[in-house]
Amino acid sequence: MPALGADMTEGTLLEWLVHPGDQVRKGDIVAVVDTAKAAIEVECFENGTVDRLLVEPGTTMPVGASLAVIGPARPATQTSEPSVPVTSPLVRHLAEESGVDLATVHGTGPGGRITRADVNAEPPSAAPLRTPPAETDTTKPPDTPRVRPEKPPTPPARPGTGDGATRVRATPLAKRLAVEAGIDLAAVAGTGTGGAVRALDVKAALAAALPSAATARPAAATGRHETMRRAVGDLMARSKREIPHYYLSTTVDLGAAIGWLHERNRELPVAERLVPTALLLKAAALAAREVPQLNGFWTDDHFTAAPAVHLGVAVALRGGGLVAPAIHDATDLTLPELMARLRDLVSRARSGRLHRSETTDPTITVTNLGDQGVEAVLGVIYPPQVALVGLGRVVERPWAVDGLLGIRPVVTATLSADHRASDGATGARYLAALDRLLQKPEEL
Amino acid sequence: MTTRKAATGKAVTYREAVREALREALVADERVFLMGEDVGRYGGALGVSLGLLDEFGPARIRDTPLSESAFVGAGIGAAIAGLRPIVEIMTVNFSLLALDQILNNAATLLHMSGGQVAVPLVIRMSTGAGRQLAAQHSHSLEGYYAHIPGIRVLAPATLEDARYMLAPALSDPDPVVIFEHGSLYNVSGTLPPDTGPVDIDRAAVRRPGTDISLITHGGSLGKALQAAEQLAADHIDAEVVDLRTLRPLDDATVTGSVRRTHRAVVIDEGWRTCGLSAEITARITEQAFYDLDAPVERVCGAEVPVPYARQLEEAALPQPADIVAAARRAVG
Questions:
Q1: Where are the domains of chain B?
Q2: Within this chain, domains B11-190 and B204-331 share the same CATH topology
Q3: B251 interfacial to chain A (CB closer than 8 Å)
Q4: In this structure, are residues A225 and A320 in contact, taking their beta carbons and an 8 Å threshold?
Q5: Fold observed for domain B11-190
Q6: How far apart are CA B159 and CA B166, in angstroms?
Q7: Distance from CA of residue A42 to its chain's centroid?
Q8: How far is B237 from chain A (nearest CA, A)?
Q9: What is the nearest CA distance from A167 to chain B, expressed in angstroms?
């Protein structure tokens, strides 16, 4: 069980994305783990072959517990055609008959062998490789299809509803009672052997949901909300307890930046137009590269500067709580790329599908409450990071430039920084760099 | 008349209860006679027929040679000819010598004669372990006989059944095999007042309960009742069902109990594989699947020839602690 955040002590395995026998490479997504905050895709740390899965979906394990055994990569036995899996003549015949490309079929048999059921479960490719000759058809009863090509592709299994490994273990009586009471067995915690749901579990769930059966789902959501609240609270309390924050604030003239943006957007279709946030994030990332004392981690009583800027972006979640996943190497992204990454990140954060590295890697975090109408935000640092940049709303203000008063768009940028890692002068350099970078938007 | 009254009110043993049932049958119907190895002058290898030779004479209490196939065959012939023979076989292990007569003749003749030839024969035999008699005298092969269509198989587990099952068995127009568990003969107790013949179509609930059904028969009934007492101390209220009739099985009583308790442990001294316990378990899942709240548990004899050494013999047989453990697994 990997630590998917500084605040994580345990996680619940939601889903395996690999099976015993699968070859995996470092970085492959192998599982989905639920933390207090979100469902996160876990990347594999090693190259090799999945030997055994040790933990059933739905199990909560402490950080550091073993989830699976990965053995050494299997030597390629099929040197001539490594991509063609081992199949029996019957399976090859069925596949040919139904137009299934065996190279794309996931085998569930021993050693990843493709079974007849795997072929039957597969949707046919667009063009069957061969249509059966008519005389063959006449020898077969027409009402015994040997494959079921009409079956749609298997939807991604959700815990508790699918077949196979994620099927809910429940006694026959418990199932019957659940159907009668209209209770979703996936939401019932089992106390029987191997976590099987028994009648008394269903009765307990029914009693808990007594006001109306329909509250079973919201009750679960409330539980999630509470754990999220507690996780955020624990982390922020730790931050305020351990980190001596200092705060700086400056107001940045965005006249040049907004003007440039308007010019640029005029030439672009609506979908590709940039928003001020992209400029602000890019500038925040570049400024962090200029002032490396603020970009990194405070661990074991000393600061370690990070070699790259992975810009954490605080994302408020619907229903409360927040996460701050990283935009990796934000300094190297073009503005359109950064916009696209931001949009993707926010939508995945809200749907609860973040990658592990995105939750663990941020080296400095930006919180932007401008869209909420806030003019200045003095944030709390995410341990073990050492700085947090706060951005307010872009507002028009009377502003003196070169001795003349004008109406200019301005933004209040703040910095919360860890006094153990840096001093106010360092923080001041950061805000100055941010200001300077935003005056030359064309270079961002 | 030298008829003695059934000993009601005073303590009797299982052995005496069977003897009393035999005596009653011999008195009630002149066509009834007892035959088997050592039943006459020796008084029965298990002491059941002690005194009956003096009382009823050698024509009705007949010693036979050690020839199970021959004297069971003779019993079948006598039954076809109009008598009501009761054949005693010393142990179920020896009865295998007569299995051909029982399966191929007694159980089959009514069918093969188009309903013309009934075989109203009663065969009594001892079964089971627990007395250090080793592997050739100790097995529980009731399941072999419960497998055979055309016969009825009874297993009296209580004094009352030992006393009052014989009369309905003799009334049955078809062959009836009665299994008396060897460990029961010395069990003593007070017979309740005559409640009339036992209903040999029905299993009996020996102890009502709500949390789990312990389903058993014969020599394991006492162990199941002991286990139920131990479970009661843990606030697990076990119901104990005595199958009593092993063929035809009383599905209604068994599934009715499981429908109330939602869990079952089947206890059978016989071997687990392809045994009576497998049949009971299958019927429960066939008929009460949607009432089950735990997998059906089985406590059976170890799959070895029954050992002679006391410790090994005890270890090979279902014991109350095994039943308690299985029940706890099921209740969780």
A1: 11-190, 204-331
A2: yes
A3: no
A4: yes
A5: Rossmann fold (3.40.50)
A6: 12
A7: 9
A8: 16
A9: 17
The per-residue DSSP string of A349-370 comes to HHHT-EEHHHHH--SEEEEE-G
Render each residue's pLDDT in chain A as its tens digit; 444 residues: 887 776 777 888 888 888 888 888 887 888 888 877 777 888 887 788 888 888 888 888 888 888 888 887 655 444 444 445 566 777 777 777 777 777 777 777 766 677 777 777 776 554 444 444 444 444 444 444 444 444 444 444 344 333 444 578 899 999 888 888 888 888 888 888 888 899 988 888 888 765 543 433 444 445 666 777 777 888 888 888 889 999 999 999 998 899 988 888 888 888 788 888 889 999 999 999 999 999 999 888 889 999 999 999 988 877 777 888 899 999 999 988 888 888 888 888 877 777 777 888 899 999 988 888 888 899 999 988 999 999 999 999 998 888 888 899 999 999 999 999 999 999 999 999 999 999 998 888
For residue B36, report the phi and psi dihedrals to the nearest 5 degrees.
165, 180
Which of B263, B293, B297, B328 should we substitute to test contact with A (largest number of A Cβ atoms within 10 Å)?
B293
Give pTM, 2 decimals: 0.52
Phi, psi of A298 (to 5 degrees): -100, 105
Distances in whole angstroms, Cα of residue A424 to Cα of each of A247, A254, A419: 8, 24, 8
Q: Is CATH 3.40.50.1820 the right assignment for the domain spanning B204-331? A: no
How many angstroms separate the CA atoms of A69 and A44, rounded?
11
Identify which of B248, B229, B250, B249 has the alpha carbon closest to the alpha carbon of residue B240.
B229
Residues of B annotated catalytic, as ranges: 68, 137
Closest CA to A359 of A344, A345, A369: A345
B1 touches B20 (CB < 8 A): no
CA dihedral A280, A284, A290, A296 (to 10 degrees): -170
Q: Could you tell me which residues come within 8 angstroms of residue A344 by beta carbon, excluding any fewer than 6 positions away? A: none
How far is the C-alpha of B77 from the C-alpha of B85, rounded, in Å? 9
The structure tokens listed for B234 are 């843990």
Question: CB-CB: which of A175, A176, A191 is closest to B332?
Answer: A191
CB–CB of A199 and B262 under 8 A?
Answer: yes
Residue type, A136: T
**What is the ipTM for the molecules in this complex?**
0.73
The two structure tokens encoding residue A36: 């207090």
**Cα–Cα dist A174/A170, whole Å:** 6
